[in-house]
Amino acid sequence: MKKSLILLLLFIATITYSQSPSEIQKEINSTVWKPFHQAFENLDSKALNNIYAKEVLRVTPKGIDTEGAFKKGTTKRFKENKKQNTKIKLDFWFDSRHTNSDTSYEVGFYKITFTTNGKASFVYGQFHIVLKKIKGEWKITQDWDTTTINGEKITAVNFGKKRPISF
Question: Is residue 165 part of a domain?
Answer without folding.
Answer: no
